[in-house]
Amino acid sequence: MEASVALRDDGYAIAGMGADLRDFDNDGKPDLIVSGIINDSFLFFRNAGSGRGFEDYAQRTGLLLGTRQLTGWSLGMYDFDNDGWKDLFFALSHLAQLDRYLGRDSALPNHIFRNINGKRFEDVSSAAGPDFQRAAMHRGAAFADFDNDGLVDAVVSVANSPVKLFHNITAGHSHWLAIRLRGTRSNREGLGATVHVRLPDGRDLYNQATTAVGYASSSEPLVRFGLGANRMAESIEIHWPGGGFQKIANAGADHILEVVEEAKP
Predict the structure, then answer these.
(1) pLDDT (tens digit per residue) in 248-263
(2) Model-wide pTM > 0.90
(3) Phi and psi torsions of 16, nearest 5°
(4) Strand stretches in 96-222, DSSP E
C-alpha cells in the first residue's frame, strides 16, 4: 500500500499471478508488471522514484484495455527484438472451471506486446507466427537464448501436455550484448547485481541479474541488452549485490561478455 502497487488507481484488487520488475522506459528505475484474471486487466506500475513509490500506468501504456479479456499466468519483460526497449510476453489461459461461465474453451494463445519507445505497448501477437496463435492451457514461462543467436526465446509449460519452446526468429539487424556475471564475494551468478549500459548514441539501458521471473518458473541468469544499431557499448557499470562496483569501457556487441567480480581492494 505504501508503494501504491497493491491496487489499481480505482482501488480495485485483482487476482494477480505472474510478476516481473524491470525498467521499461530506461530511466534507471525498475517498473512492475502483474498479470491477472479476465476482466481484471493486468497491472502496470511505473516507478516514480525519489521515494514517491509507483504510479498506475496500465491505461497510459495501452495494457488496461489490451489485457482485459486475458487471464495471465507467467510473464517476462525482455527485449525480444533487441531495439533497446523491453517488451512483454504473457503465458495465457483461463481457469479450466470458467468454461461454463465463459461459454467457450479456456485455452488461449499467448500474447506479446512490443515496447514503443518506453511510452506504450503495442499488441503484436498476430504477427508472431502461426505457431504462436495456437491456444493451450499455458502456465509457466521461462526465458533464455536457447540457440545462442542473440534473440531471447521462451519455453512455456502447458497443463497436462508437453512444454512449448518458442524460437525467436525476429528479423532485423539489431545488435545485442549479454553479460554473464561471476561472483567471488557475492553469490556465484551475481544475482541481485544491477547493470547500466551507456550506448554511443547517448542512450542509457538498465537491467539486473535475476532468474525469478513470472510464475513457478526460473529463467537464465544472464543480463541481456538490445543495442539497436550500436555495434558496441560505450561503458558498462556493474553494482554487485555485495556492494562492489566495476566499470568496463568499449565492449563489442553480439557476444556474451563474462565479468568476474573483482576482489575487495
Answers:
(1) 999 999 999 999 999 8
(2) yes
(3) -70, 155
(4) 111-116, 120-123, 138-144, 153-158, 161-166, 175-182, 194-198, 204-208
